[in-house]
Amino acid sequence: MWKAGFKWMFLIIGTMVGAGYASGRELWQFFGHESGLAILLFSIMFAVSCHVILTISYEQRTTHYLPVLRLIVGKHLTGLYDILILVYLFTTTMVMMAGSGATWQAFHFSYWWGIAAIGIPLVLVFIWDLKGIISMNSFVLPLLIGGLLYVLILFTVQQELSLISHLNEQTNWASAFPFTALNILPLIAVLGAVGKHVKRKGEVWIASVGSAVILGVVSFIYNSSLIQISEEMLLYEIPLFAILKHYPYKMFIFISILLWIALFTTALSSVLGFISRIQERFKIPLWALALITVTLTVPFTSFGFSTLIEYLYPLYGLLNLYVLSAILLYPIANRYKEDLRY
């Protein structure tokens, strides 16, 4: 049970920790100053959301997200949110490609070289086998989380930062709601596909609570570090680079490579989810659909990584607030229906 629970836990963390989160840009967009309570509220709501989604998936023995989505938002809104998931997957690909451009810029290469470096492999991979590359997540994510924690804790110690000095200032608590809501649709999409493979309810508890605790701790330490360099972040598309400049160049290169792989695997998952959903309408090979999808995203990447996150992520956070509310209220509503039944 524990082993399986940890497997789902890393799946949840992998879904959450895309390159937007790992870069620090997503955290700073929603949190920043006076956000300790917001991060605590996020952790609680995230645990509840994961538990509800995984429980529905487990009970319904699902293999894709539509049955879960239908139970949460109702059959009338399922079509709307199905479209929203497709739009989310397309724009996430766009954001990850822009992030690749920003990463290459940090090494003084052309922004468009960075776009090409991620766009070309994204198309080529659909000609060959996907399994090996998608399974990179299980290897890369522990390295990325471990590397992030190492850098952030070292930064906290070296800069003699106090993580509890501003606990009396918590005016930004409401940001927990759009931040949690932002990550709801990909969670439904991913966890809805594994319900058939969950064997026991205990796995659901381990995955939900474990992922929420890890993400809560990492988010709090990361956000506290970003506060200290807030004045410098105007100079960086990727805030993590403002922290990494305090470290040896080898560390900068190592974390940058992990960050780029996180960009690639997130983009790959998004492209795969998008084109596999629309393939039934367009009877052409996956690589051709991938080529069309990637080509369509390229013009939008010119807006830049930080700009895309600044406008798109809050928009998705607001659009998903209804889904988050429905998930948080689902246990109460479901219990009420059962009481009426008896």
UniProtKB/TrEMBL annotation:
Residue stretches in coiled coil: none
Entry's transmembrane regions: 38-58, 79-98, 110-127, 139-157, 177-194, 206-229, 249-274, 286-305, 311-333
Entry annotated with the keyword Iron: no
Swiss-Prot/TrEMBL keywords: Membrane, Transmembrane, Transmembrane helix
Designated name of the protein: Putative membrane protein YkvI
Organism of this sequence: Salirhabdus euzebyi
Lineage of origin: Bacteria, Bacillati, Bacillota, Bacilli, Bacillales
